[in-house]
Amino acid sequence: MARERKHPPRKRRRGRFRLFYQLLSLVAVAAAMVTACVIFFRVNQVEVQGNSHYDAQTIIDASGIQVGDNLVTMWEPDINDRICQKLPYVERVVLHRVLPDRVNLLVVERTAAATVEGGGSQWLLSADGYLLETTQEPQGVQITGIQAVNPQAGAPLEVEENSQSKAQAIPKLMSALEQAGKLSQCTQIDGSAAASLKVSYDIHQLKFPLHGDYERMLNLFQAALDSGKIPEGEAKVFDFTVVDNEVYVQNPKAEPSAQPSAEPQASAEPQTSAEPQTSAEPQASATPEP
Fold first, then answer.
1. Tens digits of per-residue pLDDT, 180-194?
2. 212: left (phi over 0), alpha (psi -120 to 50) or beta
3. Which domain range does residue 95 map to?
4. DSSP letter string over 211-225?
């Protein structure tokens, strides 16, 4: 009597083919969708938002985007680089695709925060340290004691080799002042000293090291002002270069005209010896409220 044959292997092969066809179908659908995007989604309208220094058409021209460009395949980093290289006031651009045919360019612009000399001209400088353009009318904080070398619009501030640390510290300090809402009350940043920066803030002088947590230092400064132990209307020097994580408060020198030339001679020793005359102030400002 003949035995009945069983064919389980054929069922397994049939299952494998079914999975293969499913994968093939998914690939075909994805390819069709990509092809449709490439063929049908074309730029018909470009909108610009967030711009104030440049008009919309100037930004669109700098982006290189043309009507009819493919909406899907355009590369945002390339567009961002083209705009920032041509337009110094533009810090960055965010691209939004709006299907089926629109592009939105969200522009983040820099503003002039300071003025620095370089190449025989005065240059406007943003808070993050980028040169914007030459000017006949200085704006914002006056940066003294250093000069820009080979200045170019849209390029970061470059200085002589022996002032590199100052060129790195100044943008960080200006950004911290801007975040703290104090930059608009500053009139000068003096970089003439070898290892510190002096900021003229309202009636006070603030002396910062070239490295450190400027946000923390500005919190200490504000805490000292809020302590009630700094007489209102009385100018003081707030020195952050003497002791880490503390602010050292003293009276300014009597000779205002000697201020720039006296800065290189100001060291921690004379400040420490002069401090006992105003010993209550450092203690109050060195332990601010959180």
1. 999 999 999 999 999
2. left
3. 45-109
4. SS-HHHHHHHHHHHH
